[in-house]
Give the backbone structure.
Amino acid sequence: MNKKGFTIFLLVGVFLGILLAWQVNTPLPIAGGFISDEIKAKDELLKDFVNEQSFLKSRIVSLREEVEELENKLEKQSAIYNIGLLESLKKAVGLTERTGLGLEIVLDDGISALRNSANATDENLVQASDLRDLVNVLNSVDVDAIAINNQRIISTSVISSLGNSILINNSQTTPPFTITVIGDSDIILQRLLDDSILPGIYEKLSNDNIIFKIYKKNLVKVPIYNSDLKTNLINLSE
């Protein structure tokens, strides 16, 4: 081998040695690097899922507490409404004693009239119709409560006559008739003093056949209704 060939051979050998040494010293990639990234991503997803579940659970608990609070408020409001409704019904059927400002009205037979006498006439006696007219006028001004001789007057009360006797709530009542009424005294008085509204009473009064007096009172007491209630007129609803 001549000198030139040897030199070429030597250079090739050196080059191959350097290339082999570089390959040996180059670090190999870590096996499974992509799997490690996937595991890390799954861990992050799992962590996010757990956090979200915790938030949702806490939100559910909060919403449940809000629902319970609303239910309690509704129950209280319902109880208050039912109590108010019950009081209104009791007032309507006269099951509560009432007190307040109002009037006391006295309606009586004529001074010389004897109700059980054979000479008694309609002109000098207070009739059941007179009391009914008076009650109708009082109800027209939306009074709170009415009683005649301590008989509470409600929407189903009956005022009738049996001979010369007057029945109120099926109880015999004798004159003088004291009508107690709770309400706006001025408005009630304005209506009662209008003779065109109570023509029958004012006609008898003008002839001195009956006594009709009105008194304003700072305190009027109306008793509870103590007769039979017509339950068939009461509608119950659930």
